[in-house]
Predict the structure.
Amino acid sequence: MLTRRHFLGASLAMTAYAGGSWVPVWAQNAPSFGTPALPSPGFRRAKVGDAEVIALIDGIARRPLGEEFVKNAPLTEVRALLSSQGLPNDYIDIPFTPFLVVAGGRKILIDTGLGEFGGSNAGKLVEHLRAAGVQPSDIDTVLISHHHGDHINGLRNKAGEFAFPQAKVLVPAPEHAFWMDDARMAAAPQGMKGAFENVRRTFAAMPSGMLSTFEPGAEVAPGLRSIAAYGHTPGHTVFQLTSAGQHFHYVADLTNVPALFARNPDWAVSFDMDAEAARKVRREILARIVTSQSLVGGFHFPFPALGRMVASGQGYAFEPMPG
C-alpha cells in the first residue's frame, strides 16, 4: 500500500506540463547545459533467436545533477561514481527509448515515448520507426510498462489522434487501477495530480476493444512474458522475450541511469514511488538477467540501449552492444 509519504517523495519529480499534458520534469532539457545530440540513425537492431528487437530512441533530456536526484546517497559520492566512469558529473543525460519486437508476424511496440509533448529534442519515435522500415499502422500491439508520461504520451497526439491506430494497447492491471482511481487522485499532492489527469487523457476515451489490461506474470504474446517489478510505480512491469533458447529483457525504469543505479542497486532515484520495493526488485531482476546471459534493453539506457549486464563490485555494469 502506497502511503502519503510515497506520494510526497515522488511528487517532487512530477510538476511539469507541456501542451496540456503532464510531462515528468526529468524529460525537460536544461538549456544552460546544452542540448544533447541524438544518434543517427536513431534505431538499432538485434536478433534474439528467431525474433528481432529494435531500439528506437524517442529523445534525450539533459538535466542538472542535484542533491535530490539520488535520494539516499551524498552528491559527492554520486559525482565521484560518474567521474570514475568518464562521465560528466554536473548534469545527467536521460534518453527515452521504446523497443519494437518483431516475432511470428507480429510487430509489438513496448512503451511510446513523449510524442508531441516533450519538446524539440523528443518525440522522434515515429520518425525512427519509419527509418527502420516500419509504419505506425503496422504496429499490432502496444505494451505499456507503467503510466508515467514519458512512456504513454506517444500513444496520442495533441489533437487526441492515435499514433498507432491499428494497435491493441495492453497495460498492467494494477498500474491502471492505481492511476484511474478517483479517490487516489483526490488524495494526491498537487504536484502529482497532473500525472493522474494525463492517464485519463491518454486512456479514458479509447474505443471499446482497443485497451486491455493484463496481470503481470502473464504471457502477453507468444514468447513474450510480463514480469511484475513494482516499486518505481505501483504496477511497474518489465518484459522477457524468449526465442530459440535466447532471451531479451526489457527493464523499462527498473534502473534509471545504469551508471548509477545498476552500479549501486540500493541507491534510490527520486522518481521511485516506493524506493524500498524498487531496490529489492532491481537486485532480483538484474541478477536474473546476468545469470541467464540475457540481452537487456532499458528505456533510459544510453544508446543503443541494448547490451549486457555484468557483475561489477556490489552491483552491475551495463555493457552496450557494439556498433
